[in-house]
Amino acid sequence: MEYVTDIVTGLSWTTWAKLGLALVPPLYGSCSWSFALKLAFVFWVIETIVVVTYRLTYHPLAKYPGPFFGRITNLYGAWHSFKGDLHLCMHAAHVKYGDVVRFMPNKVLHNTNTGSRTIYQSAKVKKSNDYLVIIPTKGAYSVHTSIDKGMHARKQKVLMQGLKQESLNAFEPTMLHHVSKFCNIMLQDEGRSAKEWTSPKDVSHYCDYLALDIMGSFGFGQDFRMLDQGEYRFLATAISASNFRTGIYISTPYLSKFKLERLFYPRGYRMRQEFLNLTRRLALERAKLGKDGKKGDLFSHLIGVKDDAGREFPEHELWSEAKFLIVAGSDTSSTVLTSLFFYLARNKRCYEIVEREVRTAFSDPSQIHFSAVKESCPYLQACVKEAMRISPPAGGSMWRESEGLVVDGEYMPAGYDIGTSIYALHHKEEYFPRPFEYIPERWIKPAGEVNPDFDFVTEDSIDKAHSAFHTFSVGSRACIGRMMAYMEISNTFARIFLTMEFRKPDGPLGKVGEGRIGMGMGRERESEFQLEDHLTGTREGPFIQFRQR
Asked: How far apart are CA 177 and CA 170, in angstroms?
């Protein structure tokens, strides 16, 4: 999509500078360089005034309200991505301006369940070209970054073969092995017995390690051994650094060519390079083993697959898929696991219901597997869903470029980006009464009849909630790994509640992850787990203590 500066003048500020320098000799004769630069600056100011005036008055999206700076520059979105409050800013914009918000010059947000489904389920949209900043090298498209609909469909079809229920069932014993190791490590504390409360642990790091170990085994047939302090522990930080960069550049793609992170975030740049080098090595090593080298891993489905022209996935695309699998396969799960620790440790009623439910359903860890947990522990499933609702792992908008689409009665012209902020939709009272409270009962049908505190819960309210629950998105680009995420989260907490107890510690460590007044816009709620939106959610804490049952 073209940027309006180019549409209005056809010139960038650098072109104006060159023009200014070229005009000086014939107009003024010989003069100083400083005068020439001043003249170029004047031209640039004139251009800026023209562009701003156009964007506020004559632009095809000018009629839609939104933040002033958002309507005139993409730097508005980049700034809030840099701060990590992009999701909160989008929510605040909807509170102030309504359901349709022009959030950046060429981007419009819609905050209704119908609008969201129209956008993400329509054939008249494509993925925004802004996501091209994610690809590690030219032409290295993954299922996530494929703008072309045919390419995306082909890649998605291949990956879905490895995510069928029978594939997940076959992998589940390996997953449970990692979960068991995680639980054992949570109980370890030098100088204390397993029956005593451990010292506080920052579970955010350990949830990252668990999710990445699981993804290493499932994706590549390789245990990263991050729970054992293996060599790959840097991955968790490197992924966060990479997402920090990408979140900014998706708002301002034209800045990506300058690689500003080299100057302003050199540590993050180095970590991202290490991450890219590792994923490339993993892809190449796995490809050398061939399709049957480690039978059953997800990558085996990518090796040797041919398109309609008889071509196999090229090396750079295998690399890009490896990068995507590691990030997407671990980030959502680890964020939800961490959020669940936060909310259950602070909601005694919910904790006790899950505890009773799990310990009634199972008497031994060997009995725990996803189908049994799903059938026997509906309240745990509701807790998982409520954590995803109130603290979605990716709370911003997944932008789609309109190809000429009517959304909730508003025509969105072709060539402009549209989307829905998941965080804003998940906190809209029309669909989720008392939206900032952690209430798993909102997903359970008899809740309003049994407990008067939840008299708002009816079959109609539950249907509305489901219609607006978009953690994994909807449509052809919805997350294809959502069942694996549910399996991982459910199995982990079922085992935790069966084999141990946990609580938040007293004192300052017990407050890590909470909101408070003075933290910034939308971060004043103590009961809400604070995520920073850098493409996906990054976080600090919570700290948790454990004790063996």
From this structure: 13
Sign of CA dihedral 528, 529, 530, 533: negative
Spatial contact of 359 and 237, defined as CB atoms under 8 Å apart = no
Q: Which of 174, 35, 91, 51 is nearest to 423 (CA)?
A: 91
CA distances from 395 to 111, 218, 392 (A): 13, 26, 5
State both tokens at 365: 């860890």
Residue partners of 546: CB distance under 8 A and separation at least 6: 186, 187, 197, 198, 201, 500, 501, 502
Among 340, 365, 376, smallest CA distance to 500 is for 365
Burial class of residue 420, CB neighbours in 10 A (0-12, 13-18, 19+): buried
Q: DSSP string spanning 165-180?
A: HHHHHHHHHHHHHHHH
**Whole-Å CA distances, 404 to 65, 401, 473:** 20, 9, 21
**Model confidence over 80-101: pLDDT tens digits?**
999 999 999 999 999 999 999 9
Arithmetic mean of pLDDT over the chain = 87
Per residue in 267-312, pLDDT (tens digit) is 888 888 888 888 888 888 888 877 666 666 888 877 776 666 666 7
Assign 402 to helix, strand or coil. strand
Handedness of CA 370, 372, 378, 380 (dihedral sign): negative
Report helix, strand and coil shares of the chain as percent, to nearest 5.
55, 10, 35
Alpha helices for 427-518 (secondary structure H): 447-450, 459-467, 482-499
Assess contact for 498 and 380: CB atoms under 8 A. no
Residue 17 has pLDDT above 70, yes or no: no
Annotation-wise, does 479 bind a ligand? yes
Residue 451, phi-psi category: left (phi > 0), alpha (psi -120 to 50), beta (remainder): beta
Q: Can you tell me the distance from the alpha carbon of 44 to that of 64, in angstroms, rounded to the nearest whole number?
A: 27
Burial class of residue 112 (count of CB atoms within 10 Å of its CB; 0-12, 13-18, 19+): buried
Tell me how far apart the alpha carbons of residues 447 and 495 are, in angstroms, rounded to a whole number: 26
The secondary structure of 122-158, three-state, reads CCCEEECHHHHHHCCCCCCCCCCCCCCHHHHHHHHHH
**35 C-beta neighbours (distance < 10 Å), count:** 12
Domain ranges of the chain: 149-188+200-428+468-542
473: region left, alpha or beta (phi > 0 left; psi from -120 to 50 alpha): left
- The SS3 call for residue 190 is coil
Question: Under a CB-based contact definition with an 8 Å cutoff, are residues 130 and 460 in contact?
Answer: no
Architecture of the 149-188+200-428+468-542 domain: Orthogonal Bundle (1.10)
For residue 267, give the H/E element and its range. Answer: helix 266-289
Instruction: Give the predicted TM-score (pTM) of the model.
Output: 0.91
* DSSP codes joined into one string, 71-132: HH-THHHHHHHHHT-HHHHHHHHHHHH-SEEEEETTEEEE-SHHHHHHHHH-TTEEE-GGGG
- The angle subtended at Cα 324 by Cα 165 and Cα 271, nearest 5°, is 140
Report whether 545 contacts 200 (CB < 8 A): yes
